[in-house]
Amino acid sequence: MNKNVISAFILLFAAIFFFNSDFYNYSILKREKPSEERRHFIRDSLETVHLNQQDLHDIDKEKKLSSFQKEVTPVSDTIFNVSDSLSTPQRIVTVIGDHFIGRLSTQGALAVEWFMRDYHYADSSLINLIPPKSGGLLNLKVGEKNFDNLPFACDLPDTILLRDSAIIRFVHDDEKGASVIKTFLFRKEKYDFDLTITTVGLNGQNYTLGWKAGIQESEKDINPSWADNPINVFFGDAVDQPIEKDDNEKEMEGFTHWVSLKSKYFMGTLVFDEPKDAKTTFFKRKDTVYSHNTLNFAFEINGKLENKQEKYRVILCPNKYSILSSFDIRLEKTLFHGYAWFFKADVWFPLLCGLTLSILNYFYSLIPNYGIAIIFLTLLSKIVTFPLTLKSTKSMARMKLLQPKLTELKEKFKSDPMAMNKAMMSLYREEGVNPLGAGGCLPMFLQMPIFIALFVTLRKSIELRGAPFMLWIDDLSSMEIFYHLPYKIWFYGDNVSLLNIIMAISMYFQSKQTMTDPKQKAMIYMMPVIMLFMFNSMPAGLILYWAVSNIVTILQNVLYKPDLSKMIVKKKKPLFKKPSYNEMLKKMGRK
Q1: In Å, how far from its chain's centre is CA 181?
Q2: Where are the chain's structural domains?
Q3: Which of 546, 540, 542 is nearest to 497 (CA)?
Q4: For the whole model, what pTM was predicted?
Q5: What is the CATH number of domain 36-43+50-335?
């Protein structure tokens, strides 16, 4: 390897270290350092109600129904009526569906907590998507009047166990005769609910509907450098990501279908009843002890009360492809996002990722272990791409036959790089070798969409969250900890991942098998070391895929090893040989 290539790799490795260092993030970019208290925060037990799985099991079995003041019967039979009095003290109304437990406050008629019944923290408590003391969701301001701190009256029990669906109304009347009614429609089996804001005596005024709480990050060890863009907007005719991670505030105005906030595994979305022109303001929330999410944004939608009612659909759900696609509003594009400039990848890449995830889930249905399913998925991908891999192997073998001639050309034209390149291309042409195919570039390029889809799918799939594999690997969505170091190594971390070591070793042997240019020998040693550092904190499921892929490739190269002594390079005969000047004169003289 020449000095320029070695220098480039040293600079690359130095850049990776620098841009991930505390000095760059906290001294240059002035990012807020997370407090030690926030690092160990999972949820505030003093401010939130702990609901464990046994409590919910008892509710489902109706062992605690005697503690309920009232049950909700199907909406076709009952609609809760409201009281005209504003003297009702602030209360928390709990609504329990199949997939969620929502808490609504009579102060402002806000959603103040939202638990996912199917997902838990490490301490077995339910995941809450709304950070405590964050301002809640569905904040309302009309004109200059803020309704968040005003009392809303309702005649409801404290706990509502949904049997089918239910309509719940919150009403605020002021002294001037104006009224605001927030009507919620919940459905037992759904993640989403409908919100209707009805106003009396306020028509024509500007209003703001807010999502001040943002969304709480469920995972405690999230690296913002690897996190996805937290905001997606169905704007115009495409799903867009209008804000950058370093932005603090941004406004956008135009034809909007929905606005969505996302953490790693969960999302909250506000959907317009009908797409319309709206102004949306995004602003970053401060990282607090109650919300360990450095990419948490809030937003406000501004509009005008032209009708007596404004209708929205609110979705709080996991980032699960099957759930997101079931809403049929392109919400799945927030999970797998492609770029239109790359062969219209915004159309086919989400479908490719969705297909990859479906195959993964199919293997899991056969053997209920996602680690085994990842191995099967890797094997399937290698089978699908084997023809391209075989073509690349043959091309590289033919390239090795040309190495002596290439070495001669490099020595002959070492002082004239342009002449050397011209002579090399002429040799490739004469010998019928494609330098792109011979180096494995073209076949690898054609395989890249599949590899990237596998990478993205395994990194984002909530199915892997908390999914065990074997022995000490008990969560394929988080980094593997085979051994915990007593100190932290810069850029590497304080954990030792055995899968990561296997991946780096297998990469070394794979690179050694496919090397064609002896001068690239340093690459064999450098790349595994770089990947060892970069992948150490990656999810175990992703490293498992990469390690298995390397091992399978090594086996393919062993099983199919072209015999260079028997391989004959076929020269390409030119279709037309241009006659020389003397030959043309002789031909003319004969005539």
Answers
A1: 37
A2: 1-31, 36-43+50-335, 351-559
A3: 540
A4: 0.72
A5: 2.70.98.90
